[in-house]
Specification:
With 81 residues, the protein is of the alpha/beta class. The chain has a single domain (2-80), classed as Ubiquitin-like (UB roll) (Roll), CATH 3.10.20.30. Helix content is 16%, strand content 33%. The protein has helices spanning 18-24, 75-80; strands spanning 2-6, 9-13, 34-38, 41-42, 52-53, 63-64, 67-72. The strands form 2 sheets. A 5-stranded mixed beta sheet has the order 2-1-7-3-4, with no helix packed on it. The chain has a two-stranded parallel ribbon with strand order 5-6. A hairpin with a 2-residue loop joins strand 3 and strand 4.
């Protein structure tokens, strides 16, 4: 399990990648108007399957850890912003 702060709430998650985290939370990673930031930096959608949450083990894949911000808005909300 990995400890993350997701949208301001401390959580223990079994997911090891951003894509797995989204699916575990019932969010379709292919959904439009969806953004993910880790420690304040937006993570490109093309990296969601590869970037692993830093568990302190191994250095063979890109690692992310810490604060995760998930933002999913409706199309009408995205257009008005």
């Amino acid at each position: 399990m990995t400890r993350l702060k997701i949208n301001g709430v401390d959580e223990e998650v079994a997911a090891t990648t951003i894509a797995q985290l989204l699916v575990a939370r019932g969010i379709d990673p292919a959904a439009r108007f969806l953004a993910v930031a880790v420690n304040g930096a937006v993570v490109r959608r093309t990296s969601w399957d590869e970037a692993v949450f830093n568990t302190g083990r191994g250095r063979d894949r890109p690692a992310v850890a810490g604060r995760v911000t998930l933002r999913h808005c409706e199309q009408s909300e995205a257009i008005s912003q």
